[in-house]
Design goal:
Distance between the termini: 75 Å
CATH architecture of the domain at 87-208 and 256-355: 3-Layer(aba) Sandwich
Low-confidence stretches: none
Number of helices: 13
Mean pLDDT: 88
Largest sheet: 5 strands, parallel
Strand order of the largest sheet: 6-5-7-10-11
Strand content: 5-15%
CATH topology of the domain at 87-208 and 256-355: Rossmann fold
Structural class: alpha/beta
């Protein structure tokens, strides 16, 4: 104990003089910062859970429930109006629609995506797949978007729904942040994630725990984080904690440097799974936040799409140039009617380009 006290004093004294040889390296090695992105999301979840209880999943909406494979899904048969007068409706399958989805003889388009496709913060009539269905009644649009999803969850949703609905076309619509979400085992709640192994995707994190056990796991992890933060005040113990963090990281998934490679594998599997089901696929990039208003910025989502299409034979649609040509300002938050109409119109034009403006009756 006396030796540890002396060592602690010596380390603190050495770090107090940054001009000493190796002081910067020693300072870094003896500082422990236990706050990771995953930990921040867990703390944020618990804070919200204290206020809302079951309505804390996910943070972006309050009408979800845990799902053993996808992480979370909307509750079925929802029908309510929010404080802004916007209607929210889900069908008996849990999708954002006032009617159940059926596979009829029309050209069927299945859409997967996140909250911008699900329609968070928008009225039922102002969701872009719904607008697409309105302007193109000759096709059958199935909106399977779910709020806060990453590309990994979109892939799992796609693979399940193509087996059920046998679409003619799949649209995978994403924003830039969806690429980051695939790096995490926890965001708004526990979620599935993929590890990369020899160029393949290995699914981890399932089954997703039900709410009671899931919350207990989060509380345990946050308690451990707080203990580690307390112990990390010591320079000596910080060295030990940093070693443990290297061996057993808080987020067992990937570093940010792995983001593009992981998402490349995810989108490749989307393409493979869709074509194996006898359908075609279009990857659609949806701009949001500052990328909706600043033409001088290239978003991570655009950059990824440009590199991906350079190495893969797949149809893509970048809607950002279309937004920038519009003579109006759009909200940098979730899409409302004006922005959703731009996306629906762009997708409609892309469908015309794909089919020549003639949608054959499906033979599936």
């Amino acid at each position: 104990m006396l030796g540890m006290v002396c060592l602690e004093f010596a380390l603190r004294l050495y770090c107090h003089f940054p001009t000493l040889p190796g002081a910067e390296a020693i300072t870094g090695a003896t500082r422990y910062d236990p706050i990771s992105e995953v930990t921040r999301w867990k703390i944020q979840f618990l804070d919200l859970y204290k206020e809302r209880g079951e309505e804390a999943i996910p943070i972006s909406q309050n009408e979800y429930r845990p799902h053993p494979t996808f992480g979370w899904v909307p509750n079925a048969n929802l029908s309510f109006t929010d404080t802004e007068g916007r209607r929210y409706t889900t069908n008996s399958q849990g999708f954002r629609s006032p009617h159940d989805y059926v596979r009829d003889d029309r050209f069927t388009v299945l859409v997967v995506g996140d909250s911008f496709t699900y329609g968070s913060g928008a009225d039922d009539s102002d969701v872009w797949p719904t607008i697409l269905q309105t302007i193109r009644p000759e096709i059958n649009v199935l909106n399977c978007g779910v709020g806060a999803y990453g590309t990994d969850q979109m892939l799992l949703m796609l693979e399940e729904q193509v087996k059920i609905f046998h679409p003619d076309l799949v649209i995978a619509a994403y924003i830039s942040d969806d690429l980051r979400r695939s790096l995490l085992p926890f965001r708004d709640y526990w979620k599935p994630y993929f590890l990369m192994e020899d160029g393949s995707l290995i699914l981890k994190g399932i089954p997703i725990p039900e709410l009671s056990s899931g919350v207990e796991r989060i509380k345990r992890d946050v308690r451990l984080h707080r203990i580690a933060r307390f112990l990390g005040r010591s320079r000596v113990l910080s060295i030990l904690l940093n070693i443990v963090e290297l061996v057993v990281p808080d987020s067992p998934v990937h570093s940010t440097d792995d983001k593009n490679l992981l998402n490349e594998l995810i989108f490749e599997r989307m393409i493979t799974s869709t074509r194996a089901a006898g359908a075609e696929i279009i990857l659609v990039y949806l701009p949001n936040a500052r990328w909706l208003v600043d033409p001088d910025l290239e978003s991570p989502g655009e950059e990824f799409l440009r590199e991906f299409v350079g190495n893969h034979d797949v149809r893509v649609l970048n809607t950002r140039p279309i937004f920038l040509k519009q003579e109006q300002q759009f909200s940098q938050k979730h899409y409302q009617r004006p922005a959703a109409s731009v996306v629906a119109g762009a997708v409609s034009d892309e469908l015309d380009s794909l089919t020549g403006g003639c949608f054959p009756a499906s033979k599936k």
